[in-house]
Design a protein that fits this description.
The protein is an alpha+beta fold and about 250 residues long. It folds into 2 domains: about 50-120, no CATH class; about 125-250, Roll (Mannose-Binding Protein A, Chain A), CATH 3.10.100.10. It has 6 helices and 11 strands. The longest helix has about 45 residues, at about 30-75. The protein starts with a helix and ends with a strand. Residues about 90 have low confidence and may be disordered. Bound molecules: calcium ion. Calcium ion binds next to strand 9.
């Protein structure tokens, strides 16, 4: 009789062990967290691959679109003079990645720097722009129209360096219209490309602007001061002019 009782106790212990195994699989299977981690890593890897693939496809499509757009722009100017410009992106792969992303999202036009930067033949190259000296004398409105026909504007000056570069290429006995005017006659100077007019970047001759009836601006050289500078003049006077456009990127 006592053997039967012991058998029952052993049987009950066996059942309890089996029940513990069934209700607590984590304790009984130590490889479960590793499996979960592996699955998570695989998923992360797949997501990363998908993201980079999508990014590369988008990047290639965008570059192609940009090239096509530039090719259309080239048709205006049949002959170009080009320089190879390399975009330098030094540092870690992360900085390379952020530079590309920055270019793509914030400065898409600058993507062209990865290729060739060109100016039409007979135009001068400085920084990221091209400049044309038109020696035909026209009034201010006709001068701007002439620049527009070449996909440019009358000169808009952003820095002293730019202005100094322009002066080096001009004839001191001539005057040249630039893209600054006062269309309302209220001394509210406006650049043709809507660049805000800043008093801190002006190069007026001493005593200029001097006449509310003179609504257009030209560059000329004054022998007394031995300097180039700006002078407001009547818009119907006929002068040479300066055009400016952004470099064409191929
Ligand atoms: Ca004047």
């Amino acid at each position: 009789m006592s053997y039967g009782w012991q058998y029952c106790v052993i049987q009950e212990k066996g059942k309890r062990k089996r029940r513990r195994k069934e209700t607590n699989p984590h304790k009984s299977n130590p490889s479960f967290p590793k499996l979960l981690l592996s699955l998570f890593l695989v998923l992360l890897l797949l997501l990363t691959i998908s993201f980079f693939t999508a990014f590369m496809i988008f990047f290639q499509k965008y570059s192609q679109l940009l090239k096509e757009k530039k090719t259309i722009k080239e048709l205006t100017h049949t002959e170009l003079e080009c320089m190879k410009e390399n975009l330098t992106m030094e540092g870690s792969p992360i900085s390379l990645y952020t530079s590309l992303l920055d270019l793509l999202l914030l400065h898409p036009k600058d993507l062209g720097l990865l290729y060739w930067s060109c100016c039409p033949k007979a135009w001068k190259s400085f920084s990221s722009n091209c400049y044309f000296i038109s020696t035909t004398r026209r009034n201010w409105t006709e001068s701007e129209r002439n620049c527009l026909e070449m996909k440019a504007h009358l000169l808009v000056i952003h820095t002293k360096d730019e202005q100094d570069f322009i002066f080096q290429n001009l004839d001191i006995n001539s005057a040249y219209y630039i893209g600054l005017s006062d269309p309302k006659g209220t001394r509210d100077w406006q650049w043709v490309d809507q660049t805000p007019y800043s008093e801190s970047v002006t190069f007026w001759h001493s005593g200029e602007p001097n006449n509310p009836d003179e609504g257009c601006v030209m560059l000329n050289f004054r022998y007394i001061s031995r300097k180039w500078g700006w002078n407001d003049v009547a818009c119907n006077g006929r002068h040479k002019s300066l055009c400016k456009m952004m470099k064409i990127h191929l």
